[in-house]
Design goal:
The chain is of the alpha+beta class. About 25% of the residues lie in helices and about 35% in strands. The protein has 2 domains: about 180 residues, Bira Bifunctional Protein, Domain 2 (BirA Bifunctional Protein, domain 2); about 45 residues, SH3 type barrels. Biotin binds next to helix 1, strand 3, strand 6 and strand 7.
Amino acid sequence: MMTKFGSVFIQLASVDSTNNYAANLIQQGSCQDGSVIMADYQTMGRGQLGNSWQSVSAANLMFSIAFRPKYTLDEQIRLSWYSALIWQQCLLRFGLKAQIKWPNDIYLGKQKIGGILIEQQLKGAVLDWCILGCGINVNATPELAQATSIFQETGQKFKPLTVLTEYLDLLNGQQKLLYGDFLQLKGLYEEAMGFRNQLLQFEKKDGTSFSGTIVGVDPQGQLQLAVEGELQSFANQEIRFLLPLA
Ligand code: BTN
């Protein structure tokens, strides 16, 4: 019933994207639940919303997990919440207090230390496979002011594999959360969300902006905001939020 995250471990020097590699394994019908694909380098790493994900070779952690969920499509958000929560716990093992920037970016203060890209495969109306792709800045000195790394924060270098080992350990150990009470998982995710209790600027797809306060998420994982005293929900593609400057 439970998944053994890391049951199969594939380490690659270079690949287009570990998410693609996992998708190919699944397509070939030769993929075991919990298989991990890690790469030192990606030539076509992908981020959320069609962005690219680039990283210096071997400096940072990049991997994907092929995961066969044992819950139904209406609860598909579970993995997004769980994987982000587990990153928060994992970074704590390195002395870092991370927060989740909705939907599943990992932040230290106002700087991004990692991101998650989940791709799903359905069989009819059944959730068949999820590919959990993670990119975490471990040893790089990011060029962007809005990014940071474990090295930048702690002054210590770690092997990316060391960080992955801790993450897998937590993923395996906390599965009660992944499969447990839905509202408990949602509540824990909401507690781990950053940038709450402050007025933030949001920008809609059409370019218009407004201010609101993060309240939490709805059961689909949409962001719930209080906008002028009214509760509103937004999907990931609908808005982006600009971090407070102060
Ligand atoms: C984001 O912040 O936009 C998500 C970034 C996800 C990057 C990881 S790196 C390993 C895996 N393979 C990819 O092509 N993307 C994910």
